[in-house]
Amino acid sequence: MAGVTPLVRDGREGFRVRFYDAAKRRREIYLPGSGRSVQRLAKAVAAHCDALVQAKGANVPADPAAIAWANGTEGRLRENLVAWGLADPVSPKLATDAGRYLGAFVDAYIESRTDVKESTQTNYKQTRRLLVEFFGDRQLLRSITAGDGARWRRWLSAERGLAVASCSKHTKRAKTLFAAAVADRLIAESPVAGLKGGDESNPLRRRFITPEVSARVLAACPDADWRLIFALARWCGLRCPSEVRGLRWSDVDWEEDRLRIESPKTGLRFCPIFAEVRPVLAEAFDLAPTGSEFCVSRHRGGLSNPRTQFGRILKRAGVVPWPKLFVNLRSTRRTELQEMFPGHVVDAWLGHSGAVAAKHYLQVTDEHWARASESRPPTSPPIVADPSPSAAITDIKKPRENPGFDGSGYLPDASEVTPTGLEPVLPP
């Protein structure tokens, strides 16, 4: 148990905190000053030291407040705590802007992530912009609290007007960023670790693109390349732009009617050349310049952001643009194929799991509602407008031992079964 005693050192008053570490060695911390405020501080230091020693001896995580105090110390005291095994070593990054300030830290982190795709780095930069816009570029990392993190999350929704899915994605990226700061011993704990991103799926933004609308859009495409882009996204369910842009003519197996898809997201898979796609693919092949490598060659530059041009095509077709233009093409195809093939087969063709399909792609279409209405079975006997006041007693039969089962598999409604013991008395 740590003790606090007054002490005069070099002619100055102060308080000495004395405790024993996990190895039963005596340790001391001297706090200069006098008065009750310094004494209370010394008692708080003693409590933190006790908590750290006990946790180290029991090999369990210490109280977060004690860890934050130890890792927040500086100078000789921090060196002693590190030597006693009660604090993490000081990170060299703390002497740089990248280890102290929010903007510089996130920039350095993004630059270090050479293992991710360029699009992933772009996503981190978007989250960086939102963090800096709220906190400031020169905000000290260690000064951001869990309450600040919760206010930032609410700000994304209330002030910036971001959808739940967008808030969720930015929250997850912020968790990754601050977790890296914890791992580098720049901060004691992440201020966003306890945040919940929310459900990224939004059924209200799903749209089923009917065959009639698809035919109009295909006819409105300006050239063979755009017809192929639309056909691959709509009837093969390829992700656009990544999978459409990467498809090569060497990936087309005309004899087996298969496409070899090297997806940047999920790896290699194979997909059928569906009947709707084959004539469009053949047209693009016939019109492709000699020696062309990629199936889509003319608009490869525009595939970095194809939504703008696709929006013009929809306007030319007289179609109101739907949310998530290319994702809903993939969602439509998943819903169609689900009706025709087993789920594991469609999973293999489109490159996602059944759980992902249920959460993000599968839809309830107008056709489902129509079929349900046409084949609706009767749920109860028809209602008689003027029922007879009484029935002939001879028409009533004594129920079987099990009144809910008539021996043929038919389970009558409860109103059709006469309760046992209340049978009518038959006339002699």
Walk me through this protein's architecture.
Strands 1-2-3 form a three-stranded antiparallel β-sheet, with helices on one face. The chain is 46% helix and 9% strand. Residues 404-410 have low confidence and may be disordered. α1 (36-58) packs across α2, α5 packs antiparallel against α6 and α10 (224-235) packs antiparallel against α12. A hairpin with a 3-residue loop joins β5 and β6. The protein folds into three domains: 3-88, no CATH class; 95-183, Orthogonal Bundle (DNA polymerase, domain 1), CATH 1.10.150; 205-369, Intergrase catalytic core (hpI Integrase, Chain A, Orthogonal Bundle), CATH 1.10.443. The protein starts with a strand and ends in a 54-residue tail after the last helix. With 428 residues, it is mainly α.
What is the string of SSEs from the N terminus onward? EEEHHHHHHHHHHHEEEHHHHHH
What's the rounded overall pLDDT mean? 86
Spatial ordering of strands, largest sheet: 1-2-3
Share in β-strands: 5-15%
* SS-based class: mainly alpha
The number of domains is 3
CATH topology of the largest domain: hpI Integrase, Chain A
| Shape type | elongated
SS element count, helices: 17
Radius of gyration, whole Å: 35 Å
Largest sheet: 3 strands, antiparallel
Note poorly predicted spans: 404-410
Distance between the termini: 97 Å
Q: CATH H level of the largest domain: which superfamily?
A: Intergrase catalytic core
Helix content: 40-55%
CATH hierarchy: architecture of the largest domain:
Orthogonal Bundle
